[in-house]
Protein backbone atom coordinates (compact mmCIF):
# COMPACT_ATOMS: atom_id res chain seq x y z
CA UNK A 1 0.00 0.00 0.00
CA UNK A 2 1.07 3.57 -0.61
CA UNK A 3 0.01 6.80 1.06
CA UNK A 4 -0.03 10.37 -0.22
CA UNK A 5 1.04 11.96 3.06
CA UNK A 6 4.41 13.67 3.46
CA UNK A 7 5.55 11.25 6.16
CA UNK A 8 5.20 8.26 3.82
CA UNK A 9 6.91 10.14 0.97
CA UNK A 10 9.95 10.87 3.09
CA UNK A 11 10.34 7.61 5.02
CA UNK A 12 8.06 5.04 3.39
CA UNK A 13 6.09 4.58 6.64
CA UNK A 14 3.10 6.28 8.22
CA UNK A 15 0.26 5.53 10.61
CA UNK A 16 -2.37 5.78 7.85
CA UNK A 17 -1.34 2.44 6.31
CA UNK A 18 -1.90 0.55 9.54
CA UNK A 19 -5.26 2.22 10.13
CA UNK A 20 -6.39 1.43 6.61
CA UNK A 21 -5.37 -2.23 6.95
CA UNK A 22 -7.13 -2.46 10.31
CA UNK A 23 -10.35 -0.99 8.82
CA UNK A 24 -10.22 -3.38 5.87
CA UNK A 25 -9.68 -6.31 8.20
CA UNK A 26 -12.73 -5.32 10.24
CA UNK A 27 -14.86 -4.80 7.14
CA UNK A 28 -13.96 -8.05 5.36
CA UNK A 29 -13.15 -10.29 8.29
CA UNK A 30 -9.60 -10.76 7.05
CA UNK A 31 -7.10 -12.61 9.20
CA UNK A 32 -3.29 -12.56 8.83
CA UNK A 33 -2.07 -15.58 6.90
CA UNK A 34 1.65 -15.13 7.42
CA UNK A 35 2.20 -15.30 3.66
CA UNK A 36 4.03 -12.11 2.75
CA UNK A 37 5.96 -13.58 -0.20
CA UNK A 38 9.22 -13.21 1.79
CA UNK A 39 11.84 -15.94 1.60
CA UNK A 40 14.47 -16.67 4.24
CA UNK A 41 17.41 -14.33 3.87
CA UNK A 42 15.61 -12.00 1.46
CA UNK A 43 14.70 -8.53 2.67
CA UNK A 44 11.47 -6.72 1.80
CA UNK A 45 13.55 -4.14 -0.12
CA UNK A 46 14.87 -6.89 -2.39
CA UNK A 47 11.37 -8.27 -2.92
CA UNK A 48 10.12 -4.81 -3.87
CA UNK A 49 13.04 -4.31 -6.23
CA UNK A 50 12.37 -7.62 -8.00
CA UNK A 51 8.67 -6.99 -8.43
CA UNK A 52 7.40 -5.89 -11.83
CA UNK A 53 3.98 -4.75 -10.61
CA UNK A 54 2.56 -2.71 -7.74
CA UNK A 55 -0.39 -5.10 -7.43
CA UNK A 56 -0.90 -6.44 -3.90
CA UNK A 57 0.05 -10.08 -3.26
CA UNK A 58 -3.49 -10.93 -2.17
CA UNK A 59 -5.20 -9.23 -5.14
CA UNK A 60 -7.63 -11.49 -7.02
CA UNK A 61 -6.04 -13.19 -10.00
CA UNK A 62 -9.24 -13.38 -12.05
CA UNK A 63 -10.09 -10.33 -14.15
CA UNK A 64 -12.56 -7.96 -12.49
CA UNK A 65 -15.68 -6.83 -14.32
CA UNK A 66 -16.84 -3.28 -13.74
CA UNK A 67 -20.60 -2.79 -13.69
CA UNK A 68 -22.40 0.53 -13.99
CA UNK A 69 -25.59 1.38 -12.12
CA UNK A 70 -27.76 1.11 -15.23
CA UNK A 71 -26.77 -2.54 -15.63
CA UNK A 72 -27.46 -3.21 -11.95
CA UNK A 73 -30.97 -1.79 -12.41
CA UNK A 74 -31.50 -3.99 -15.46
CA UNK A 75 -30.38 -7.08 -13.54
CA UNK A 76 -32.75 -6.21 -10.70
CA UNK A 77 -35.63 -5.84 -13.15
CA UNK A 78 -34.76 -9.18 -14.77
CA UNK A 79 -34.81 -10.94 -11.40
CA UNK A 80 -38.17 -9.38 -10.58
CA UNK A 81 -39.53 -10.61 -13.93
CA UNK A 82 -38.14 -14.08 -13.21
CA UNK A 83 -39.85 -14.04 -9.81
CA UNK A 84 -43.18 -13.07 -11.40
CA UNK A 85 -42.84 -15.78 -14.04
CA UNK A 86 -42.24 -18.28 -11.25
CA UNK A 87 -45.48 -17.21 -9.57
CA UNK A 88 -47.39 -17.56 -12.87
CA UNK A 89 -45.88 -21.01 -13.41
CA UNK A 90 -47.02 -22.08 -9.93
CA UNK A 91 -50.51 -20.86 -10.78
CA UNK A 92 -50.54 -22.84 -14.04
CA UNK A 93 -49.50 -25.99 -12.17
CA UNK A 94 -52.19 -25.44 -9.58
CA UNK A 95 -49.72 -25.03 -6.73
CA UNK A 96 -50.64 -22.73 -3.81
CA UNK A 97 -49.23 -19.21 -3.86
CA UNK A 98 -48.81 -17.05 -0.80
CA UNK A 99 -50.89 -13.89 -1.04
CA UNK A 100 -49.23 -10.49 -0.53
CA UNK A 101 -48.75 -9.67 3.12
CA UNK A 102 -49.05 -6.18 4.54
CA UNK A 103 -46.80 -4.71 7.20
CA UNK A 104 -48.87 -1.88 8.69
CA UNK A 105 -47.60 1.66 9.29
CA UNK A 106 -45.29 1.99 12.29
CA UNK A 107 -44.20 4.76 14.60
CA UNK A 108 -40.60 5.67 15.40
CA UNK A 109 -40.50 2.95 18.08
CA UNK A 110 -41.50 0.26 15.59
CA UNK A 111 -45.02 -0.16 16.94
CA UNK A 112 -47.87 -0.73 14.49
CA UNK A 113 -50.26 2.21 14.17
CA UNK A 114 -53.53 2.81 12.34
CA UNK A 115 -53.50 4.15 8.79
CA UNK A 116 -53.33 7.95 9.13
CA UNK A 117 -56.12 10.08 7.69
CA UNK A 118 -54.71 13.55 8.37
CA UNK A 119 -51.28 15.15 8.47
CA UNK A 120 -50.61 17.69 11.24
CA UNK A 121 -47.42 19.49 12.11
CA UNK A 122 -48.55 22.33 14.36
CA UNK A 123 -45.80 24.26 16.12
CA UNK A 124 -42.90 22.79 14.15
CA UNK A 125 -42.49 25.64 11.66
CA UNK A 126 -42.35 25.53 7.88
CA UNK A 127 -44.85 26.22 5.12
CA UNK A 128 -48.50 25.66 6.13
CA UNK A 129 -47.42 23.89 9.32
CA UNK A 130 -50.30 25.13 11.43
CA UNK A 131 -53.11 23.50 9.48
CA UNK A 132 -54.10 19.84 9.10
CA UNK A 133 -54.17 18.18 5.67
CA UNK A 134 -56.69 15.54 4.64
CA UNK A 135 -54.50 12.75 3.26
CA UNK A 136 -57.33 11.66 0.96
CA UNK A 137 -57.31 15.10 -0.68
CA UNK A 138 -54.68 14.44 -3.36
CA UNK A 139 -54.64 18.03 -4.64
CA UNK A 140 -53.89 19.41 -1.16
CA UNK A 141 -51.17 16.81 -0.57
CA UNK A 142 -49.58 17.79 -3.89
CA UNK A 143 -49.66 21.47 -2.99
CA UNK A 144 -48.26 20.93 0.48
CA UNK A 145 -45.33 18.77 -0.68
CA UNK A 146 -44.39 21.42 -3.25
CA UNK A 147 -44.64 24.20 -0.65
CA UNK A 148 -42.60 22.28 1.95
CA UNK A 149 -39.81 21.45 -0.50
CA UNK A 150 -39.61 25.03 -1.75
CA UNK A 151 -39.56 26.42 1.80
CA UNK A 152 -36.57 24.21 2.64
CA UNK A 153 -34.56 24.33 -0.58
CA UNK A 154 -35.75 27.52 -2.35
CA UNK A 155 -36.02 25.24 -5.40
CA UNK A 156 -39.22 24.52 -7.30
CA UNK A 157 -40.38 20.91 -7.60
CA UNK A 158 -43.34 19.38 -9.40
CA UNK A 159 -45.68 16.81 -7.85
CA UNK A 160 -47.60 14.96 -10.56
CA UNK A 161 -50.60 12.67 -10.06
CA UNK A 162 -51.26 9.47 -12.00
CA UNK A 163 -54.58 7.83 -12.86
CA UNK A 164 -54.25 5.32 -9.99
CA UNK A 165 -53.98 7.98 -7.28
CA UNK A 166 -50.22 7.75 -6.90
CA UNK A 167 -47.94 10.78 -7.11
CA UNK A 168 -44.45 11.45 -8.35
CA UNK A 169 -42.10 14.15 -7.10
CA UNK A 170 -40.07 15.45 -10.01
CA UNK A 171 -38.59 18.69 -11.35
CA UNK A 172 -40.16 21.21 -13.74
CA UNK A 173 -39.88 20.40 -17.42
CA UNK A 174 -37.43 23.25 -18.02
CA UNK A 175 -34.83 21.58 -15.78
CA UNK A 176 -35.17 18.08 -17.26
CA UNK A 177 -32.84 16.54 -19.82
CA UNK A 178 -33.74 16.44 -23.52
CA UNK A 179 -35.19 12.93 -23.12
CA UNK A 180 -37.42 14.11 -20.26
CA UNK A 181 -35.42 12.43 -17.48
CA UNK A 182 -34.02 14.06 -14.36
CA UNK A 183 -30.26 14.75 -14.46
CA UNK A 184 -28.24 12.66 -12.02
CA UNK A 185 -27.22 15.66 -9.88
CA UNK A 186 -30.88 16.68 -9.48
CA UNK A 187 -31.85 13.12 -8.57
CA UNK A 188 -29.14 12.97 -5.90
CA UNK A 189 -30.20 16.36 -4.50
CA UNK A 190 -33.85 15.28 -4.28
CA UNK A 191 -32.94 12.00 -2.56
CA UNK A 192 -30.77 13.88 -0.06
CA UNK A 193 -33.53 16.44 0.59
CA UNK A 194 -36.08 13.69 1.30
CA UNK A 195 -33.60 11.59 3.29
CA UNK A 196 -34.16 8.47 1.18
CA UNK A 197 -31.73 5.99 -0.43
CA UNK A 198 -30.28 7.31 -3.68
CA UNK A 199 -31.79 4.52 -5.81
CA UNK A 200 -35.32 5.51 -4.73
CA UNK A 201 -34.89 8.72 -6.73
CA UNK A 202 -35.15 7.43 -10.28
CA UNK A 203 -34.82 9.07 -13.67
CA UNK A 204 -38.53 9.98 -13.63
CA UNK A 205 -38.67 11.10 -9.98
CA UNK A 206 -39.69 9.73 -6.58
CA UNK A 207 -42.93 7.73 -6.61
CA UNK A 208 -45.51 7.93 -3.80
CA UNK A 209 -48.04 5.04 -3.82
CA UNK A 210 -51.77 5.73 -3.44
CA UNK A 211 -51.70 5.04 0.29
CA UNK A 212 -52.31 7.53 3.12
CA UNK A 213 -49.38 6.19 5.15
CA UNK A 214 -47.03 6.82 2.22
CA UNK A 215 -48.42 10.32 1.78
CA UNK A 216 -47.90 11.00 5.49
CA UNK A 217 -44.28 9.78 5.42
CA UNK A 218 -43.37 11.73 2.29
CA UNK A 219 -44.97 14.90 3.64
CA UNK A 220 -42.86 14.51 6.80
CA UNK A 221 -39.73 13.98 4.71
CA UNK A 222 -40.57 17.02 2.57
CA UNK A 223 -40.54 19.11 5.75
CA UNK A 224 -37.23 17.55 6.80
CA UNK A 225 -38.65 15.44 9.64
CA UNK A 226 -36.31 12.44 9.60
CA UNK A 227 -36.94 9.91 10.85
CA UNK A 228 -40.61 10.51 10.01
CA UNK A 229 -43.10 10.03 12.88
CA UNK A 230 -44.96 7.40 10.83
CA UNK A 231 -43.26 4.90 8.53
CA UNK A 232 -45.38 3.85 5.57
CA UNK A 233 -46.92 0.41 5.18
CA UNK A 234 -44.91 -2.19 3.23
CA UNK A 235 -46.31 -4.87 0.97
CA UNK A 236 -44.42 -8.10 0.42
CA UNK A 237 -44.99 -11.33 -1.51
CA UNK A 238 -43.51 -14.44 0.06
Question: What would your notes on this structure say?
Answer:
The protein contains seven helices and nine strands, in the order H-H-H-H-E-E-E-E-H-E-E-H-E-H-E-E. It has helices at 6-11, 15-28, 44-50, 69-93, 138-153, 184-194, 212-223, and strands at 101-103, 106-107, 118-119, 133-134, 158-161, 167-170, 206-208, 230-231, 234-236. Helix 5 (138-153) runs parallel beside helix 7. A hairpin with a 5-residue loop joins strand 5 (158-161) and strand 6. With 238 residues, it is α+β, with helices and mostly antiparallel strands.
Explain briefly what this protein structure is:
By secondary structure, this protein is of the alpha+beta class. The chain is built from 7 helices and 9 strands. A 3-stranded antiparallel β-sheet has the order 5-6-7, with helices on one face. It has a two-stranded antiparallel sheet with strand order 1-9. It has a two-stranded antiparallel ribbon with strand order 2-8.
Write the layout of secondary structure elements.
Layout: H1 6-11, H2 15-28, H3 44-50, H4 69-93, E1 101-103, E2 106-107, E3 118-119, E4 133-134, H5 138-153, E5 158-161, E6 167-170, H6 184-194, E7 206-208, H7 212-223, E8 230-231, E9 234-236
Antiparallel strand pairs: 1-9, 2-8, 3-4, 5-6, 6-7
Helix pairs in contact: 5-7
Amino acid sequence: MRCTCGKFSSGGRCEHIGKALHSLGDAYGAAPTGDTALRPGVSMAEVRRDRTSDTAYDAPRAPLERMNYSRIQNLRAQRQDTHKEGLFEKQRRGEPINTPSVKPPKDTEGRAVAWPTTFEREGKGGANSDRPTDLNDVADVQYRIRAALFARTRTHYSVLRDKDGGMRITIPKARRAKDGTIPFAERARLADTLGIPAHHSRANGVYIPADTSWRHEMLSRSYGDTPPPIRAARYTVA
